[in-house]
């Protein structure tokens, strides 16, 4: 099988020829394309399969461990044996002692779905392609908890080649208590490693202890496959010597690896082999006491069936991903320039990598699909409404049904009457994967934040999909929250907003804006003009009459009525624009556009409010979506500058020091790692209309009985936009 590689890789030339050709940045001797990210996603599919390569390790990739999103090192090695000499391509820390040579890393690249590393190993050139599909309308493909590693030999003139990969026990989360199993089914071979006596749903340092790590492959047409598990010195040493693992003998103990090796024989030209790496949990989620499992298990209930399908699906998934990567790049470039395209490309896998797509384990009923999202790194809450909220622009762009899939678990809980407070719940459980609600009524309190969010999200779903049935069944619940907002959002009690790190405030203008837009959204949702009128009246009060602004109307204040010099990024006004509600007049956006383009911009952009030196990248992209082009581009430039500054190596952080005004190092991330909220970076693209990406497959999408049309028209990547971007 032969595949065309993304962009430049298809040229099949040696690494060295890339120097100076591309605009990507150099670090060490490595060219990063399109630019240096903080960390490269390697296998990022759900909260427990989230493996990264910090970009400051890429120049020494042959030695480098990869990382779990939370920062724990994981062993994942790739070795190529060329004419009897072994070269490490990745992940062999003790190279010198081993007799394995380091390959030379020349180039690294990320797209929305691939991370690629080009290396030379003696006389041959190779590319490691780490591919995590993002295919939200194909529930089967999206729900598989596996990721591809394809090792391409891109140039070989008649050399004898074997390719090896291993992973270690650290992937289980409790290395010392883990043990391996090896299985063969037909030509599929796979290792699994699991923790002995792990209790279902137990985590340690955010890693799943239950379930199993998987490394799988199949012999290709021209390659044979062998397997071994044991100490890394013994296993890699055996491969180094024999180019094959079948006669090996090793004992599993602390530090051990499970390994697979392909023998390609003589390669003249190109060849490739595929590995699958995964983390499977049969019982994936505890939803109100019932086990939910991966959607894919309806069709492929056993591990080996799922892995076989995943490997069979490679070609289709691969072609879809190339089209998608290209379309997203073109579309995002047309929307807000090439830097914006870099930002959304790096955000895509991370945004979907915080989610599991599930069905009930017992019935495997594919009409009962629920999505669960983890509040990674802040506190591990499950289906936090103010995580779904910042992220929702990516669902709007890619597949708006996901707004419903994520809200439905919450709506069922509310509908069952298990939440008694007059405002909506913050999340569906204190810690993933326990979506068990808060029957003790003790969820973190964010009354106006979450009530406004829920109404806006419900309308966004309805507008984007045309499905009114889903929202209609919950109208009474939504109405209760709309009434709560009417009663509580002018003289507003001291309370937290989504940015709880900033502390509570009474009368926070940005929350008042959220309430105002939320009330108007319910008016649209229900067709009840009473609510629409009140929304308009509140907007008049907060903006036109100036309760939420300074006297001169230069900006929205942080807190009203008596803090004219305070300010906060009024990002809650963005859905008013996206959903076409026109609650606030044009002048409100013009005011902010002017204010944020001049006075308050730090080295890396605009902080959250006048008290903080840190910015939220998701909210800043929301706000940028309400600006004219110049101010918008400043916000995009600043986020891009943070993303690419080479000063940090976490998965994309959505919170970072934007200004040195408080004496902190600007451009450094704070606390937030790998959060799915980076879906909010799609806010500018979302303005082009819902479901505007055309290249994603829609096979395997069950459920909704009638097929509906969006109520708003998509202005997707039409030919004019595409042309502009290609010429740019
Ligand atoms: C590999 O084998 C498959 C199945 O037998 C066949 O369809 C395919 O064409 C073969 N590919 C090559 C490159 O020989
Ligand atoms: C999950 O489903 C499998 C069969 O698909 C069954 O063997 C297992 O007992 C179920 N577990 C639970 C907790 O329902
Ligand atoms: C909040 O704003 C309302 C309306 O302007 C005002 O009556 C109230 O005193 C304010 N509360 C605080 C704590 O400032």
Automatic annotation (TrEMBL):
Superkingdom per UniProt: Eukaryota
Glutaminase A central domain boundaries: 337-685
Ranges of residues in domain DUF4964: 37-99
InterPro entries, alphabetized: DUF4964, Glutaminase_GtaA, GtaA_central, GtaA_N
Pfam families assigned to the protein according to its UniProt record, in alphabetical order: DUF4964, DUF5127, GtaA_6_Hairpin
Glutaminase A N-terminal domain residues: 113-329
Protein name per Swiss-Prot or TrEMBL: Glutaminase A
Record organism: Penicillium frequentans
